[in-house]
Amino acid sequence: QATATDRAVGFGLVAFSLALFAYYTLWIVVLPFIDSAHAIHRFFLPREYAVIIPVVAGLLLLLFIGVFIVVVTWKSRKPAKKSE
Amino acid sequence: MTKLAQWLWGLALLGSAWAALALSPPGLRLPAPYRQALLPLPVYLLVAFGCYALATVGYRVATFNDCEEAAAELREHINAAREDLRRRGLRF
């Protein structure tokens, strides 16, 4: 049996990604077919954000990974290679 | 054909199908909701794949069983190795 925290975190991740998938699917695939007068549209941002938010998040992720790699590479320079 | 080539082929096929439908070629008139849903499809598939990856990781974390005996055995091995090396003069 996995530890309680492991299970909590794990199933929490599953629940979160299921919720995210459901919300995003509704937003992108279902909403265009629903009348613009329906109340459900109140729960969703304008459609442009459905593309802008993931793209910006992806760029931020790449930026973070790049910075991380640079920092780690910088720190692991051998002292003989660069003068102090 | 290598796996990479297969993947690239598949992507190229799907990409050109999407482009053909979505970038309003003259002569093709899809009803408006379909076009609205079709346009962000690449981003949607990426996000869906990300959700699937996250869910898989979460599920595997939740169901990976602890192996108490293996952990204890490993700790023993580590201590024995450490003792051995200390005897041979390696300083920690």
Automatic annotation (TrEMBL), chain A:
Pathway(s): Protein modification; protein glycosylation
Cellular localisation: Endoplasmic reticulum membrane
A Pfam family reported for this protein in Swiss-Prot or TrEMBL: DPM2
Keyword flag Manganese: no
Keyword Transmembrane: yes
Highest taxon of the lineage: Eukaryota
GO terms under biological process: dolichol phosphate mannose biosynthetic process; GPI anchor biosynthetic process
Membrane topology: Multi-pass membrane protein
Gene Ontology, cellular component aspect: dolichol-phosphate-mannose synthase complex; glycosylphosphatidylinositol-N-acetylglucosaminyltransferase (GPI-GnT) complex
MF-aspect GO terms: enzyme activator activity
Transmembrane stretches, start-end: 12-34, 49-74
Keywords tagged on the record: Endoplasmic reticulum, Membrane, Transmembrane, Transmembrane helix
Record text on subunit structure and interactions: Component of the dolichol-phosphate mannose (DPM) synthase complex composed of DPM1, DPM2 and DPM3; in the complex interacts directly with DPM3. Component of the glycosylphosphatidylinositol-N-acetylglucosaminyltransferase (GPI-GnT) complex composed at least by PIGA, PIGC, PIGH, PIGP, PIGQ, PIGY and DPM2. Interacts with PIGA, PIGC and PIGQ.
Protein family according to the UniProt entry: Belongs to the DPM2 family.
Main function: Regulates the biosynthesis of dolichol phosphate-mannose. Regulatory subunit of the dolichol-phosphate mannose (DPM) synthase complex; essential for the ER localization and stable expression of DPM1. Part of the glycosylphosphatidylinositol-N-acetylglucosaminyltransferase (GPI-GnT) complex that catalyzes the transfer of N-acetylglucosamine from UDP-N-acetylglucosamine to phosphatidylinositol and participates in the first step of GPI biosynthesis. May act by regulating the GPI-GNT complex.
The protein, known as: Dolichol phosphate-mannose biosynthesis regulatory protein
Organism, scientific name: Anser brachyrhynchus
From TrEMBL, chain B:
Superkingdom of the source species: Eukaryota
Location (main, coarse): endoplasmic reticulum
GO molecular function, one term: enzyme activator activity
Leader peptide range in chain numbering: 1-19
UniProt feature coiled coil, ranges: none
Spans through the membrane: 38-55
Membrane topology: Multi-pass membrane protein
Subunit structure: Component of the dolichol-phosphate mannose (DPM) synthase complex.
Protein's job: Stabilizer subunit of the dolichol-phosphate mannose (DPM) synthase complex; tethers catalytic subunit to the ER.
Name the record gives this protein: Dolichol-phosphate mannosyltransferase subunit 3
